[in-house]
Design brief:
169 residues; alpha/beta; 6 strands; globular
C-alpha cells in the first residue's frame, strides 16, 4: 500500500523500514508521519483488518530506530512457533510500557546494543536478510561440480593447478 510520509520538518521519509515494522499479530508504525489523514486511516485499517494490533510510534521513537525492528519466527524445543521482535536496545528503550505490553502479547522482544550500526543510520532490520531459498538437496544427491570436486582436503588444487589454502578448523 503506497503512501507518503514526512518528518515534522517536511522531509520525506526515504523508505518504510524507517517508520514501520509489520509482524504477524502486531505492527509498529508512525502513522503521525503520514500527512494525508485519509491515507493514514486507510493504512491503519489495512494493518488491523485481520486482527493485527497497531502500536503507534512517535517521530521521536522513529529517530530512536523503533520502526526498524523485524519479527522473526522460530520454534520452541516442543516444535511450537515462537515469534521474536528483534530490535536495537536503543529502540527498546524508546518504547513506552503500554507499547511493550502490546508487542509482548504476540512475541518476545529481543533487543541488542548496536551503536556503531546506528551511527551510520541503520538498525536491526538493516542487519537481517531474509533467506527464502528452497532447501538444498543432500550433497550426495546433488552431485558435485567440477570446481567442488577439484577442491578437497586431500588435494586442495583447482583444475588449473593452483593451490587452494584451506581454513584451519
Amino acid at each position: 500500500m503506497a503512501f507518503d510520509a514526512v518528518d515534522s520538518d517536511g522531509v520525506p521519509v526515504y523508505h518504510t523500514n524507517v517508520i514501520a515494522c509489520v509482524g504477524t499479530d502486531v505492527a509498529m508504525i508512525a502513522l503521525e508521519m503520514i500527512p494525508d489523514e485519509t491515507r493514514r486511516e486507510q493504512v491503519r485499517e489495512r494493518l488491523s483488518v485481520n486482527g493485527r494490533k497497531v502500536v503507534e510510534l512517535t517521530e521521536e521513537q522513529v529517530r530512536e530506530f523503533a520502526g526498524n525492528a523485524v519479527e522473526l519466527c522460530g520454534r520452541t524445543p516442543e516444535g511450537k512457533r515462537r515469534y521474536i521482535m528483534a530490535m536495537s536496545a536503543r529502540a527498546r528503550r524508546s518504547l513506552r510500557p503500554d507499547q511493550i505490553a502490546v508487542i509482548e502479547e504476540s512475541c518476545e522482544i529481543v533487543a541488542v546494543d548496536i551503536p556503531t550500526i546506528e551511527l551510520a543510520g541503520g538498525s536491526v532490520r538493516c542487519m537481517i536478510a531474509g533467506v527464502h531459498s528452497d532447501r538444498r538437496r543432500p550433497i550426495e544427491e546433488a552431485g558435485l561440480t567440477e570446481a567442488v570436486e577439484a577442491i578437497n582436503e586431500d588435494n586442495p588444487v583447482t583444475p588449473d593447478g593452483r593451490y587452494v589454502a584451506l581454513a584451519e578448523a
